[in-house]
């Protein structure tokens, strides 16, 4: 299916010095024109994506005619939302002609008699490398490359065999041992590349008030990475913004929406959390916690289903379960529970829960003793960090994992409430 893109023109704001460097490094009179790679990292909302995506298309259209070029985000959906939406408005304003071939995930872009084909890819996991095999590319743009697996990036860069091909990378920082930091950023000179570090001051469209608001949104490692733009270790307690005095409550208000979030273990503990949303804030109201190691008796999925029936007091609440708990999901669906497979991306989920705590939008009832206890024990795995991975230490994490599944999967409720369209999705995968 081919469709012309009908979009509103883009209102350009003045570009900062670093944005102008991105927009001009490849031009004939540039002293760095012969470089092969551009890496732009740094803070959120710092103007990296807008300048990178526009410059990439301008470069491709000036340098090539009739060639294939690639563009990638973590998923095609996120790429369309975060990159393509503003990009197509900018291109329209600059009189480029753009046709989108949605079934092929491709943009056909033309200007001044030249036509090139920009293919979109998602680099979500190790299987993503299969999607890009076989194509020959004249260039590749990676948006949020630190969220992609190395195998996908290696496969994509290997496809760039057209003479004059260049690689364009942008991202927010991760840990100092992340594969991209080690293999690309630390070797920028050997790779014949350019490195630009962005802060929010490099986005001239942001007011001081907006920058201050973003600074309040994050704490701990996320503040250092997303606001200061540093490649730093995730160490210590994950939710360092949590305070029992502030976040532990004795009563729960009337909830507009309720659901049960589950982290299931066979040898490890299983946790059920009853959570809800009152139209403004999120709450964990009650917990079920069973450890076979402590009791010496391991429960079957059928027994957990019976326990869940008692825990929900026969209410037909949505049940949010880790998608990896296949056997439990099968059992619960067999027993008539409306199961939703959780969105279980670890780092975005942790970031979301941390933001809710930091902004005073999430509270825990005092009866949830295991969840409250884990708040001081839910820590980053330092050994995983040394392998370039951000993940929690796998101990005293079961209630916290269930908490994350529920709150991250139901995060849309905040925006829905603001639009006065609050509703629970049907059972299934969100």
UniProtKB/TrEMBL annotation:
Segments traversing the membrane: none
Pfam families: Terminase_6N (PF03237)
InterPro entries per the UniProt record, alphabetical: P-loop_NTPase, Phage_terminase_lsu, Viral_DNA_packaging_terminase
Domain of life: Bacteria
Protein known as: Phage terminase, large subunit, PBSX family
Annotated organism of origin: Sporomusa termitida
Species classification: Bacteria, Bacillati, Bacillota, Negativicutes, Selenomonadales
